[in-house]
Amino acid sequence: MDESVSFACIDKIPFDSQKEAATAASVAQYQHGSKLKPYKCRICKLWHLASRYED
Ligand SMILES: [Zn+2]
User: Fold this and answer.
1) Mean pLDDT along residues 9-14
2) What are the CA-CA distances from residue 18 to residues 1, 4, 39 (Å)?
3) CA 3 to ligand 1 center in whole angstroms
4) pLDDT of amino acid 24
5) Of 11, 19, 21, 45, which is most buried with the most CB atoms under 10 A?
6) Residues 15-44: pLDDT tens digits?
7) How many CA within 13 A on the CB side of residue 38?
8) If DSSP states are collapsed to H, E and C, what string results for 4-43?
């Protein structure tokens, strides 16, 4: 189970800080209209963006 979680992390773009992730989320929302939420990854300890369909 843990391995499949860590594999899911590989597909994500890592951000060093919440601010970076939030900036990228704003750009994506502006360009694509996609709502993304920054969250801190418990696997790599960096930040990723989650769509509203993910948790
Ligand atoms: Zn991660």
Assistant:
1) 88
2) 27, 24, 8
3) 12
4) 97
5) 21
6) 999 999 999 999 999 999 989 999 999 999
7) 18
8) HHHHHHHCCCCECCHHHHHHHHHHHHHHHCCCEEEEECCC
What confidence category does residue 2 fall into, taking pLDDT thresholds of 50, 70 and 90? low
Output the CA 16–ligand 1 centroid distance in Å. 11
Decide: pTM greater than 0.90.
Answer: no
Q: How far is ligand 1, taken at its centre, from the CA of residue 36, in Å?
A: 15
The neighbourhood of ligand 1, an ion, using CB within 5 A, equals 9, 41, 43-44
Query: 16: which residues sit within 8 A by CB, 6+ positions away?
Result: 46, 47
Q: Which two tokens stand for residue 16?
A: 């060093």
